[in-house]
Design goal:
By secondary structure, the protein is of the alpha/beta class. The chain contains 19 helices and 16 strands. It is elongated, with a radius of gyration of 30 Å.
């Protein structure tokens, strides 16, 4: 990795000598003759380590170090000092300096200290990335994503979860709306209470009414005993109503009453039952269009849609395909007792180029099929379903007309990295850019910037 160092010293010969020695070690080096100029270089970004003289006219090395550490805790700063100011260097160490060297500088010692400081810095960032990923997984469990398009989803979940507000989750079939409902419940004060789920499209209107509100014995043919409804079972917790757009108008009226008054009666019953339920609903329909058609009540829509979370389709978050595919591969390989190490380059390219009309559910089914068909330790195109085996493999990157330059660059970098099987050195060579530049752009576009 091509690190960029900043050398600051008011003596030109020392400054240039240090720069030449560090350049000989393979680093990019920029120089500044005082603390103020050094601060400007640091603020401009792209600096990985600072080597600075302790005593300089104007802003001293010690003052500069404090500014740097205030803006970037843990940043490596190596102090240079004369023999008469070693005590000040020790104080700087207590204030956060990485290390110090006395003048005249032993270049071999400097080289070793710089190398160790940069290695420690990289380990620090790797550890922080791992902690962030673990925290994200702890919060959202099965929701696997690094896509920028999902950031708003996560932010809204975090804001809405602690409240009692009803949430309407929208998105195409198979995008993972139920996982969002799970996260809302797990991050809420109701997490120790029941999370009850009802698939509204799977039940007839009569059965749905009984399922939601319960019924008394003899209230209809087949009602041989009293049954508690899902609103009773979920009291104190969360009720998830999947495919809410499929319920009939009669049940919509009853549901609206529960949302407004927090009370209901069982089918065939006279006793009014109070309930404390947080409602989370989901649909793949355009409920505003359904309102226009007279199929959905507008007042119920507003009661349900206090907070809206729209989950984007997989074709708009293709950055997540490698993570999702790897997770499904691991799951189904264990389930089927197979040892499969990964997906080869060509198969991965086919997964990237597919539009995924069935979204994550389709990708999951695809990977299950591939694991079952795979007879080696790597999944190839021949193991994928027919739609992928028969797809044209022209090696081109597809960019939608109307995309801006930043979007185009992100797609090119993402797909090239996939083409290079995640090897960042190979990807930087293919793109004809420096490895440091590639890593910075991966971070800017929030793509996977971890080491191989």
């Amino acid at each position: 990795m091509n690190f960029r160092l900043l050398v600051i010293d008011d003596e030109k010969n020392i400054r240039e000598g240090l720069a030449e020695a560090l350049q000989g070690d393979g680093y990019d080096v920029v120089c500044a003759e005082n603390g103020d100029e050094g601060w400007k270089y640091f603020c401009a970004g792209d600096i990985d380590l600072v080597v600075t003289d302790l005593k300089m006219p104007g802003t001293s090395g010690e003052e500069l170090m404090k500014r740097i550490l205030a803006s970037a805790p843990g940043f490596p700063v190596i102090i240079l000092t004369g023999h008469g100011t070693v005590e000040s260097a020790v104080t700087a160490m207590r204030d956060g300096a990485w290390d110090f060297l006395t003048k005249p500088v032993d270049l071999d010692h400097l080289s070793l200290k710089v190398k160790r400081a940069l290695e420690t810095r990289e380990l620090f960032f790797q550890h922080r990335r791992m902690e962030e990923e673990l925290e994200r997984k702890k919060q959202f469990k099965s929701i696997i994503s690094i896509s920028r398009n999902m950031r708003e989803v996560f932010n809204t979940i975090n804001k809405a979860a602690p409240t009692k507000a009803s949430v309407l989750i929208t998105g195409e079939s198979g995008v993972g709306k139920e996982l969002v409902a799970d996260a809302l419940h797990e991050l809420s004060p109701r997490k120790d209470q029941p999370l009850i789920k009802v698939h509204c499209a799977a039940l007839s209107p009569t059965l749905l009414e009984s399922e939601l509100f319960g019924h008394e014995k003899g209230s209809f043919t087949g009602a041989v005993s009293r049954k508690r409804g899902r609103f009773e079972l979920a009291s104190g917790g969360t009720l998830f109503l999947d495919e809410i757009g499929e319920i009939d108008l009669n049940n919509q009226i009853k549901l609206l009453r529960v949302l407004q008054e927090k009370k209901f009666e069982r089918v065939g019953g006279e006793q009014t039952i109070e309930t404390d339920v947080r409602i989370v609903a989901a649909t793949n329909k355009d409920l505003k269009a359904e309102i226009e058609k007279g199929n959905f009540r507008e007042d119920l829509y507003f009661r349900l849609n206090v907070v809206n979370i729209h989950v984007p389709p997989l074709r708009e978050r293709k950055d997540d395909i490698p993570l999702l595919a790897a997770a499904f591969l691991k799951e189904f390989a264990q389930e089927n007792g197979k040892s499969i190490e990964g997906i080869n380059e060509k198969a991965r390219s086919r997964l990237y180029s597919f539009e995924w009309p069935g979204n994550i559910r389709e990708l999951r089914n695809c990977m299950e099929s591939a694991v079952v068909m795979c007879q080696s330790n790597v999944i190839t195109v021949d193991d994928l379903p027919p739609a992928f085996r028969n797809a044209a493999d022209d090696g081109w990157i597809n960019i939608k007309l109307g995309a801006n330059m930043a979007e185009c660059e992100k797609i090119i970098i993402r797909d090239t990295l996939s083409f290079c099987n995640g090897n960042k050195t190979k990807a930087s060579e293919t793109l004809d850019i420096g490895r440091k530049t590639l890593l910075r752009k991966l971070a800017d576009y929030e793509l996977d910037s971890s080491e191989e």
